[in-house]
Please model this.
Amino acid sequence: MQYIRSLEVGGTSVPLLVAQTAVAAGYPSPAQDYFDGTINLSEHLIHDTTSTFIVRVSGCSMEGAGISDGDELIVNRARKPVDGSIVVAVLDGEMTVKRLRLTPRGVVLQAENPQYPDLVVGELASLTVWGVAETCLHQLLA
Model:
């Protein structure tokens, strides 16, 4: 702690003590005093640099999955999609982000917003899973 300024109270100058470190708003981190170094987000978010892309989301059909308009998805084109994966798919030449559902009746690209219909992939439709979304980057600032 050190004095950095004073406050006038009834004509008297009162020195204020100011902490040198920030205070956690919430549960204090037990590792706060032990971390030393830089954070490389690529190491944490990208598992295969040769097949990973970032795509920006347009639209609100995936809001139930925590994916909003303007978010960015880290998409791995090498990851094998499975039932329940959130995928970037190309359906009849149009790219879309949806949850992949493999049902006994066929493939469904499921929206995660009840205001949008699921896309049932017809027998004659052209479907390519472009990649599997691994992470959503959501900006908190307006």
